[in-house]
Amino acid sequence: MLAVALTGLVGAAVYFFVWGKWGPPAAITPVGKEVDRQYQLTLAITGAIFILAQLGLAFAVLRYRGSGRGAHYSHGNNKLEFLWTFATTVIFLGLGLLGYKAWGAVRLTPASPGAIPIEVTTSQFVYNFRYTGPDGRFGMTDPKLISPSTGNPLGLDPNDPAGRDDIVVPTLTVPVGREIDLLIRSQDVIHSVFVRELRLQQDAVPGLTVPLHFTADKIGTYDIVCTQLCGLGHSRMHSYLNVVSESDYESFLKRQEQLLRQAGGR
Amino acid sequence: MSAEAEVSARTQAARQHAAAGAPRGFVRKYIFSTDHKVIGIQYYALALAAVLVGVVLSIFMRLHLAWPALHLPFVSGGVMTPEQYEALLTMHGTIMVFFVLTTAPQGAFGNYFLPIQIGAPDMAFPRLNMLSFWITLVSFLCMISAFFVPGGAPLSGWTAYAPLSALGQVTGPGEGLGQTIWLVSIGVFCIAMLLGALNFISTTIDMRAPGMSLFRMPLTVWAWFVTAILSLLSFAVLLAAVVMLLLDRTAGTSFFVPAATVVSEQLQRHSGGSPLLWEHLFWFFGHPEVYIAILPGMGVTSHLLSTFSRKPVFGYKAMVWAICAIGLLGFLVWGHHMFVSGMSPYSAFAFSLLTLSIGVPSAIKTFNWLGTIWGGKLQFTTAMLFALGFVSIFVTGGLSGLFLAQPAVDSMLHATYYVVAHFHLIMGVAALFGIFAATYFWFPKMFGRMMNERLGKLHFWCTFVGAYLIFFPMHFVGLAGGIRRYADFTAVDYLWRLQPLQRFITWAAFATAAAQIFFLWNFFWSLRRGEKAPRNPWRATTLEWITASPPPHDNFAGNYPRVYRGPYEFSVPGTAEDFLMQDVPTGPEKGARE
Q1: Which of A54, A78, A85 lies closest to B395 in CB terms?
Q2: For the structural domain made of A116-262, what CATH number should be given?
Q3: Which CATH architecture has domain B1-259?
Q4: End-to-end CA distance of chain A
């Protein structure tokens, strides 16, 4: 009966992993697609091992259920041990080495000089995204000036001219096909930034600014969710990544600058 | 006598002490007892109480996830709030990991059977052993009290990341007194574990019977021994980390909190600390901890597969080296919990390769388990079914680790339900199967009665199928981007679309939890009404089966064994019986003791 259950398990597993309808949405970056390839490779290898191991167990349980002939007295087989140790080492480490490219492309390679820097500041339980504005520089911030309730969630210093044109918005808008360099920070506890379609996730740690770069190649709106338990509002900490055309991005920036002017600057 | 001279001075003294007779009086015999067998049962009872609490918490969690607007009993306000959910989640994880998976496999079965399996009268330090249990109990009661203090239990998860856990009430409900109590409880638990580890290590090194060389020890003893070494080294670090976090909370230090931390518009006074330091310290403990939870179960599985296949363990020496390799490598992989934490991406790559390497000894163990039953004569007792189930679950849960071990793939799976599926299969199911297998196997020896086999098999089938029905779908929730530790999925559209899967998991969880009644009924009924157990009902070979069921106070009624062979001599050609006990002196032609 165990053999039947194990075979059923293998059947269900293969069905759901290969044909099942639950999976991530399509990746929208070249690196994301590389991650998907690595995932598929891992799935193929682990899938094969899974099928062989579970069916092997099922076979042994069926074939050797006790009756009649006695057990075979053996303490093992050293040759077999070396063989499967070697094979496992090669396969597992090989898998890891092959995955280096997808990791290195994002994490071990800095953003190119023309990337658009966008600061992501997390706090309980909101995202704030800051653009440099036309001067290309981020203004100074001071923790003592942080006051979301009066419209200054990042604590921008009004005395710093570089900060006067900084755009601070609650959703992330980027142009398609351009490299973006996110600078991820936190004001209070550890949060996280995760966009499924980018296949990228990064914790926002107080005291650190962690860079994360990507180039989105598909226009659309994608969810940004917090994945690091940050308090009672964790499940509601949510924003959007809007990948728009170059002209829509320019319009977005112009509109934000206009709003800043209307509000009288800082 | 020359036999006496072959044991250590400590063992001689222990034997003499035991010969003086068992303690009298209810309190000395059953409450404040230094007898490792009583202490083992006390740990088991504690773990049983803890797992019942843990399961109830998880039922409430699953109810809320499936039906977020449901009014629930015992929940103040009726509908569970997010902070209540996060508090349940924190306590569920803490209680299960510490008070079930770290106490039952090692504290209960290790305490009970390590001395007997090596032919010793008791542990090296019986009074310290008693102290370890009582300190663990104090820790548990302290932990439970966190539910009842103002603010309630903490909500930072069993991982208690700083600064969420370091700044007090300001970061959330339960983060005041609740978090402090949690930390004190864990610190106290660390002390108990350190004392226990000292005992296990000393006993294994010093108190083995004559002829019991290291490579004649059962694999269960090897597993408990290596687990104790891991405990000693990892709990020491957790204790230090917990003290540092308590100081940050109460004494004005800033180990884990940097400058310019602003919570709810209030600038915090801390400066100079690093949240990543907590993560490193915690996971340096946290990863060996999961091996502490699983290694004893691996030992039990090897032991049972051999016994119930009537065949020696395939590759005993390789199994020993695999246990040691898992133990050693277990200390070098902690960073795989931190790939996206902000730590150096170069170190992420190093941790990744080391983590993939630890898959190798795990794979060796799996191959050897298959090799053990291959060509055997299998007896499908309940204990054997759970051991076989362990192999299946360990394969499934272990393989999902291969995805998480690669940082690029982890970038899409970290903190999703994929991880929850992975660790529940390995810890919540496989380790639990190890505990069940050990229970069904050793219940006759511990209590002198047999458990009911039909109820046992029913329990196995419900739990095996149920566990897969609960945790297999979780992989898909994770792949679709279902985030863990979320109190509900109503705020994000794509998460809400996963509700059918979540509801299925909840129903499967109810059914599986309910099926545990078969185990509880069987356990308690058999204690009183089970068929009387013979000395060696399983026709097994190790030293616990040479003595009475249950064993006398000094384990061997003065007749301490001498060991002549390895622990898994089954179906030796030329013998009358299909098993040769370790203490039988003559060669195969003389056969085995009944």
Answers
A1: A54
A2: 2.60.40.420
A3: Up-down Bundle (1.20)
A4: 74
